[in-house]
Design brief:
Length: about 325
């Protein structure tokens, strides 16, 4: 059975949406509209009982297994057709879950009246052996408060998870979604803004060709690659929005960086990239273990201000 949704879905604020900020190559989200003029569904799902539906027109029944067949491309770009992320093979379709387990990026409410942040809804920024640290700032800046943490064992007395959370596509080293026909449009300069978390170091998003490969791997030490060169964001940003940038410097070197609440980058010799494939859940040779929530890609010289704005509006929505 499918319940028909009657509420308002997606971002209804006046903030610029990611696919409005600059013409996008793709725009995929399980939870919100990414372009102000978009009025379609976000994804197509298949339930274990064989029923299919499209969200948010239909609400999936998570009392049974639910799988994602398609994430719809929300972009509108002249000269570039929309290309959905699709998996027609049922055995390779990721499972749809509702994030409700404690992890980096989870929203937690402080309920103990003597806690310095009583009543605040904070975001988990790191997990320790006996407890976890949180960011209580408004808007969230990704930095822990020195007196904002709690212990795991005090759940129900000091803290509680805030629910409902957002939809996630869960991958387990097998599933993936394919994006056809868009890879050849990718040139020298591009920006990818995304949200997900991997259980081990593995590619949530892969873009590759015969001579070039790019991956984004949002583990506790987030990895990002360009060909055989590997960079890492040393802060624990898994489960938080991040922005991947690749561009050419005035010295004709390639600059590759990734940003969450901090930035790490690397400079490598420039070579003209050539891409043929894009996938959510795999690279050319590896599969993903973790969850995916959202990804957008923009081409050209998107300014630092533009990149930061897209990242910040994504952070504001989810955190």
């Amino acid at each position: 059975m499918i319940a028909h949704h009657i509420g308002v879905q997606g971002d209804v604020s006046k903030s610029r949406l990611p696919a409005d900020a600059f013409p996008a190559v793709f725009a995929y989200s399980l939870n919100r509209k990414l372009r102000a003029g978009y009025n379609g569904n976000y994804f197509k799902f298949r339930q274990a009982d064989g029923t299919t539906g499209n969200y948010p027109a239909d609400t999936p029944d998570l009392g049974q297994k639910v799988y994602i067949e398609t994430i719809y491309d929300q972009k509108a770009r002249e000269g570039v057709e929309t290309q959905d992320a699709v998996q027609s093979n049922q055995s390779l379709q990721p499972e749809l879950t509702l994030g409700s387990t404690l992890s980096v990026g989870s929203k937690v409410r402080i309920i103990r009246s003597t806690h310095p942040w009583y009543g605040s809804v904070g975001v988990v920024v790191s997990l320790g052996e006996s407890g976890f640290a949180m960011d209580h700032s408004t808007p969230k800046d990704g930095i822990r408060e020195t007196d904002g943490g709690v212990t795991y064992t005090s759940e129900g007395t000091s803290w509680e998870l805030v629910s409902p959370d957002y939809y996630r596509a869960q991958f387990n080293n097998n599933e993936y979604l394919e994006v056809e026909n868009l890879a050849p449009y990718i040139g020298q300069n591009f920006t990818i803004t995304c949200l997900g978390k991997c259980s081990n170091i593995s590619p949530m998003l892969g873009i590759w060709g015969t001579s070039t490969e790019v991956t984004i791997e949002p583990s506790e030490i987030a990895r990002f690659t360009f060909d055989s060169t590997v960079g890492a964001l040393l802060e624990n940003s898994a489960g938080q929005p991040m922005s991947y940038y690749s561009g050419i410097s005035k010295q004709n070197n390639r600059i590759v960086s990734i940003t969450s609440s901090s930035t790490e980058g690397m400079t490598i010799p420039n070579a003209t990239p050539s891409f043929s494939d894009i996938s959510i859940g795999r690279s050319a040779s590896r599969k993903y273990k973790g969850y995916f929530v959202e990804a957008t890609m923009h081409l050209g010289d998107l300014t630092n201000i533009g990149r930061d704005q897209i990242l910040q509006t994504t952070r504001n929505y989810y955190l």
